[in-house]
């Protein structure tokens, strides 16, 4: 029986599993079996982490066992090593028990972690525990009776969404969003940046551009900017980007090197997609970003490539970037902005349709059924 192993139950992993489930159908459990491995027992809805700050009961965890079915099993454990010659991975379970799991095809979808370093102070928004800690710090600040100042460092989508959420939630707090760039989301047109800043201003968020933060001193509650100035801040949240989880696979620019069909360079029967992989459209030279939408998009093509490699039939498939440029940005509980561009045509949505698209993309990425 052929064995497919998927490491990582993030967006890339669960969507690959789902596509393969559909493609193999009733062969699963007959001549093919699959194993999903993750160090956590749940799929984390990472793109919604900001919501857990404003709503302590918001559930971000979906049990990974809910994605399995006939011929599929879930193993909770941390993959430590790939033994390429033996076509096996070494998994640590319960923090100590090491076990070899062999594979015929292996998918590395270990995603990414925050680039923030602990000695920079503050809290990086990357887990539900971090979101809970941020909320706790905010509540402590509010209890002290003073007006509270919250800084969000890093103004990518995650920073913008977090600032908008907190601004809408805490009417009396001072909220600052620190953007190293000259305008918000500079890869989008200027009018989109302006719309976003306008919405942030409406909920009391002050956006500062063209400056970085070097450090936050948790004791002195002081933020140190790159231009030498300092500011008193009660809670500092970092949303400054991601670094790939790469294991022992060969890497370039910190990400696992794959060819145009997601095969890990120098390894046989090993594939990689999502945040951990450096996926390039060879025709245009465009490198995929570390986003949920790209991870999900890659998973569809990967499943077709894996079936083709296993059966030896079908035409050669290669990665192509998503043909539409697309941003869906949450701007508080009841607002969202969607920007789409294909060729010369572009469109901005800020109405109920934008809210509908926001919910649909969140749900479909995590395979949440209505
Ligand atoms: C706060 C925040 C907000 C974001 N907002 C957006 C957004 O609005 N839009 C957007 O498109 N993207 C957003 N992103 C980026 C998006 O979350 C990632 O691009 C996406 O999660 C990538 O999916 P993935 O499956 O590759 O990796 P991940 O979601 O990181 O999943 C990787 C999985 O692998 C597991 N794992 C890692 N190492 C091992 C190991 N050694 N052994 C076993 N298991 C392992 C992890 O536990 C995890 O479950 C955001 C990210 C963050 C942190």
In short:
The protein is an alpha/beta fold and 370 residues long. The protein is 26% helix and 31% strand. It folds into two domains: 2-113 and 243-311, FAD/NAD(P)-binding domain, CATH 3.50.50; 116-240, FAD/NAD(P)-binding domain, CATH 3.50.50.60.
Description:
With 370 residues, the chain is of the alpha/beta class. It has 2 domains: 181 residues, FAD/NAD(P)-binding domain (3-Layer(bba) Sandwich); 125 residues, FAD/NAD(P)-binding domain, CATH 3.50.50.60. The protein contains 7 helices and 26 strands. A hairpin with a 4-residue loop joins β15 and β16. α1 packs parallel to α6. The model has no long low-confidence stretch (mean pLDDT 95). Flavin-adenine dinucleotide (FAD) binds next to α1, β2, β6, α4 and α6.
Give the topology.
Layout: E1 2-7, H1 11-24, E2 32-38, E3 42-44, H2 49-54, E4 61-63, E5 72-76, E6 78-83, E7 88-93, E8 97-102, E9 105-108, E10 112-114, E11 123-124, H3 128-143, E12 149-153, H4 157-169, E13 174-179, H5 190-202, E14 205-209, E15 213-217, E16 222-225, E17 230-232, E18 235-238, E19 242-244, E20 251-252, E21 255-257, E22 270-272, E23 277-278, H6 292-311, E24 325-330, E25 336-342, E26 345-349, H7 352-365
Parallel strand pairs: 1-2, 1-9, 2-5, 9-22, 11-18, 12-13, 12-18, 13-14, 21-23
Antiparallel strand pairs: 3-4, 6-7, 7-8, 10-19, 15-16, 16-17, 20-21, 24-25, 25-26
Helix pairs in contact: 1-6
Bound molecules: flavin-adenine dinucleotide (FAD).
Strand order of the largest sheet: 5-2-1-9-22
Q: Which stretches are poorly predicted, pLDDT < 50 over at least 5 residues?
A: none
Give the proportion of residues in helices.
Answer: 25-40%
**CATH architecture label name of the largest domain:** 3-Layer(bba) Sandwich
Q: Using the alpha-carbon principal axes, give the shape.
A: globular
Strand content: 25-35%
- Each distinct ligand: flavin-adenine dinucleotide
The number of distinct β-strands equals: 26
Overall pLDDT metric: 95
Major sheet: 5 strands, parallel
The Cα radius of gyration reads: 22 Å
Contiguous helical run count: 7
Q: What fold name goes in the CATH topology slot of the largest domain? A: FAD/NAD(P)-binding domain
| Assigned CATH superfamily of the largest domain | FAD/NAD(P)-binding domain
How far apart, in Å, are the first and last alpha carbons?
35 Å
Which class of secondary structure composition applies to the elements? alpha/beta
> What is the total domain count?
2
